[in-house]
Specification:
By secondary structure, the chain is of the alpha+beta class. The protein folds into two domains: about 150 residues, Efflux pump adaptor protein, beta barrel domain (Elongation Factor Tu (Ef-tu), domain 3, Beta Barrel), CATH 2.40.30; about 150 residues, Helix Hairpins (Orthogonal Bundle), CATH 1.10.287. Helix content is about 50%, strand content about 20%. Strand 11 and strand 12 form a beta hairpin. The N terminus is likely disordered. It is found in: Membrane. Keywords: Membrane, Transmembrane, Transmembrane helix. Pfam families: Beta-barrel_RND_2, BSH_RND. One of its GO terms (cellular component) is membrane.
Length: about 375
């Protein structure tokens, strides 16, 4: 009976028999399988990156922007109230600051008093004009009546004159024929002379009445004087009205209110400080009206179009994504908009990829995005 013992004394040739061709084949296929799995996994894991590499443009030079409004003083004076601090929410019409009104209110009252005095003066002139119109109308009617009466008297005097002239002629003819006495002739002559004088008096009365009417018409020129006074007072009142408007605007500008709902970003003065027109008081923005200002490389600019969709991540809110789209594309590189130009007097030139501005809308989706927050944008250029 032989005992089972390990083949310690096997020769190398005997040990090599353990690695037969079938065993080596299995090891080879196992290695190929592992390599295939690794390659497949690499491709599968890198597929999103590859897809994004060719269908999206990644922009990291981007930040939240908004219409940040700086409210400045339009008048001079001391700040009497500043009820807001940084971070406060304000509604349209809420007070942001007030400037003292001690000098403006009396000035406005003085202008209003001047207007009242002007109105009283204007009313007095118009009353005088109305009374003068009535007086002139009455005098004109009286003068016209006098002229009419004088004309009637003149017509009566003319009739009496003609009658006396006719009687005188008859009596003179009869006296020449010795039919009428000398006394009758003298009476006829006296009657004719009286009729002549009455006709002349009646004619003079007509001229007098017409003179009275001319006087009335001359007095009517006072109406033109009053009209000129009214025009002068109205011109002065127009100037006073303009002065009142300026004083009211000045007084209104001493209360600074929010023009729209927003969030206070900064305050620049304290209560008691003296400000002049143009001094900055408060800065605030509308939180619901935000967008993204980004700078994209010129090599990628041609692939972007108006309306291109964008996926946005905000550094302040990791793990969240926001949707947006391209709403504006810059017309010049940012280097052309710099305050300090970059000339090249030495002649040494290093080509640098330029960047062009983009504006991208963003849907806050209930998140309060603050201007200046850094974001990363992925613009879809698959189309």
């Amino acid at each position: 009976m032989k005992a089972n013992s390990p083949n310690i004394g096997n020769t190398p040739s005997e040990r090599a028999e353990d690695f037969s061709p079938p065993r080596r084949s299995r090891v080879k296929w196992l290695k190929l399988l592992i390599i295939g799995v690794l390659v497949g996994g690499t491709i599968w894991l890198s597929a999103p990156w590859l897809r994004a590499r060719f269908t999206q443009i990644h922009i990291d030079d981007a930040r939240i922007a908004a219409n940040i409004v700086t409210v400045s003083s339009e008048v001079a004076g001391r700040v009497t109230a500043l009820p807001v601090v940084v971070g406060d929410s304000v509604n349209a019409g809420d007070m942001l600051a007030t400037i003292d009104r001690e000098s403006s209110e009396p000035q406005l009252s003085a202008v209003l008093s001047k207007l009242d005095a002007t109105d009283a003066q204007l009313a007095e002139i118009r009353t005088r004009k109305m009374m003068l119109e009535k007086q002139l109308a009455a005098r004109r009617e009286a003068a016209a009546a006098s002229i009419a009466a004088a004309n009637a008297n003149h017509e009566a005097a003319l009739a009496a004159f003609r009658n006396a002239q006719s009687r005188h002629d008859r009596v003179t003819k009869l006296a020449g024929q010795n039919v009428s006495s000398q006394q009758n002739l003298e009476d006829a002559r006296a009657t004719l002379d009286a009729a002549v004088q009455q006709e002349r008096a009646a004619a003079a009365a007509i001229e007098s009445a017409r003179a009275d009417l001319a006087i009335v018409e001359a007095d009517a020129a006072q109406m033109d004087v009053l009209d000129s006074q009214v025009a002068s007072v109205l011109a002065g009142r127009t100037g006073t009205e303009a002065e009142r408007s300026l004083k009211e605007i000045d007084l209104a500008n001493r209360t600074i209110s929010a023009a729209f709902p927003g969030i206070v970003d900064a305050t620049f003065v304290d209560v008691g400080e003296y400000v002049t027109p143009g001094t900055r008081l408060v800065m605030y923005h509308a939180p619901d009206e935000v967008w993204i200002d980004a700078n994209v490389k010129e090599t990628s600019f041609g692939s972007i179009q108006m309306g291109s969709k964008a996926r946005i991540t905000v550094d302040a809110f990791p793990g969240r994504e926001f949707a947006g789209e391209v709403t504006a594309m810059g017309g010049a590189a940012t280097s052309q908009l710099a305050l300090l130009p970059s000339p090249n007097p030495s002649g040494n030139f290093t080509k640098v990829t330029q960047r062009l501005p983009l504006r991208i809308s963003i849907n806050p989706d209930g998140v309060q995005l603050r201007p200046g927050m850094m974001v990363e944008v992925y613009v879809d250029v698959a189309d």
